Every structure is written in C-alpha cells, then in structure tokens.
Amino acid sequence: MRSFLTLLLLTLICTSVRAQKIPDLNTFDPDEILIGKDKLPKVLLVGSFHFNYPNLDSHVTSSEDQVDVKTAAKQAELRELLDYIARFKPNKIVVERRSGSTINDTYQKYLDGKHELGKGEIEQLAFRLGKQFGIDTLILGDDRTLSNSLYWHKDSLVLRPLMDSLFTANDPTSDTTIDKRYFQLYDLEDKMDARAELLEVFKYMNSTHRIKRGHGHYLTFDSDESPDALAIWWYSRNLRIYRKIQKATTSPDDRIMVLFGAGHLGILRQQFESSPAYELVDFGSL
C-alpha cells in the first residue's frame, strides 16, 4: 500500500511539473523570482571631484584649473546642484571616510551652528543635504584595502615581500599610449570643470559612459602581476565599501545617497546594478 501511494505521489508531481508553464526565454525577467513584488531600498551614487584638491592621486589638477567653491558664483551653482540632488530625498548619506574619522563631530558642530563649512565636498554637499533632510549622523563608508590589511598583518614579515613584489612590478608612471590619452583627458576635463556650471559637471561625471571609461584606466595593466595588485587594492576596497553600505541598510524604505570620489563609481555602480537587493537610481534621472 505504501509503495502504491509513493508511486501515485510521484506521478502527480511529474504531471504537475509537465503542466507548469515554462516562460518564454525572450521575455522572461529573472527578477520575477529574485525580487518579485518586494520593495527595495534605493541607492543614489554621487561621484564627485574633491573640492579641496588634496592631489593624492596620480593626476594632479593645476592651480589655475582648480574650482573655488567658496566664491559667490560657485555657491549659487552649488545651491542648484543641491536642489537637484535633493529630489532624491535621502534618509541616509554615506561619505568617503573610514571608521575613526571625526567627520561626524564636525557635522554635529555644523548642525549646532558652531562650524563654518569648509571647501570639501563632504561639507558642501553631505552636510547641507543631511541638515535639510534631518539626518543626524553620516555613514562612514570608506575602508582600507586588502593589501593594506595584509601589509600590517601579524605575519607581515612573511607577507610584505610578496606585497612588495606585486606592487613594485607596476609602474605608476606608465608611458603607454592609452595612459597618455587618459591624462590628456583629465587635463581637458579639469579645464571644463573650471568653466562649466557644477550641475553640468556632475551630470557628466556621473554619466554611465564616463563612469565605465573612468574605470577603464585601472585596466591598463603594466605587468602580469597587475591584475593581482588591482584585485587586492582597488577591487577589495570597493567591495568593502559596498559591504559597509549593505550593513547600514536597515529598511526597504531606505533612500541612501553615496558620496564618493568619481573614480569609485566604476565598481560601485556594477555592484548595485547587479544586486537584486537594491534599486539603483541613475544620477541623470533626477
């Protein structure tokens, strides 16, 4: 009797599977299963140049092309940019600072009316938007790289020679044709940034094509060791940034603005576009 019931059950299951409608592969969206009707937290990536020009990257902006955001004209442009970003209505703002930063102490002084805004994009953009939307604390989203973690590991005497071999094999002043073209592009963009209005600059920096091409500079490998160095340096840092944002997400109603240097967006955008846990809002769509 038991074997008969088992056979009957298997027959019914097989019949049900055969009867199930298989979707058309030309129109099927995997999100029908991965997301369904779930409400997703929204993320807005805002890539920026560094308003205070720390010039810590390989490209250095000449003094005549640096934008002074404290002038009356640029402050008017900043208000236009802030009004544009404010359409997103963030309830959380992630900034390019690591754990241990005192940026929230400065932000609290600003909220209390005891701090005059400096030139940096975090103060000019994140502080002002945070105050507008009643955000009491900024999320510190930056992190160290895996290469840095390994370099200062307890077994660093063993690891450092390996790390040195990976990074000394990469010439930071590469002289390839494509490398020269990238620096030519950066010089031209500096001049455009100095002369264009800030909202137009940000729309350009945050356009999908510019983000992809910006990431392309990291892929101009100098040696066979370059992919490994890139993985444990640039990729690991941005994956750790994504993880911090992930941990800070607490509700499907979250509207998270991420303010980072524009160079980070090549990887960050790919992460949020790929994840079925977020809805990425395109900067240009605001």
Q: Low-confidence parts lasting 5 or more residues at pLDDT below 50?
A: none
Major β-sheet profile:
5 strands, parallel
Estimated helix fraction: 40-55%
Compute the separation of the termini in Å. Answer: 66 Å
Count of the separate structural domains: 2
Order of helices and strands: HHEHEHHEHHHHHHEHE
Binned strand content? 5-15%
Rg (C-alpha, Å): 24 Å
- Quaternary status: single chain
Trace the largest sheet across and list its strands.
3-2-4-1-5
Structural class: alpha/beta
User: Residue-averaged pLDDT, rounded?
Assistant: 90
Which of globular, elongated, flat, extended, rod-shaped describes the shape? Answer: globular
Number of strands: 5
Total of DSSP H or I helical runs spanning 4+ residues: 12
Any key phrases for this structure?
alpha/beta, 2 domains, 5 strands, 286 residues, globular, 51% helix, single chain
Write structural notes for this entry.
The protein is an alpha/beta fold. The chain folds into two domains: 2-34; 42-285, no CATH class. The protein contains twelve helices and five strands. A five-stranded parallel β-sheet has the order 3-2-4-1-5, sandwiched between helices. It is globular and about 85 Å long. The termini are far apart.
Please outline what is shown here:
The protein is α/β, with parallel strands linked by helices.
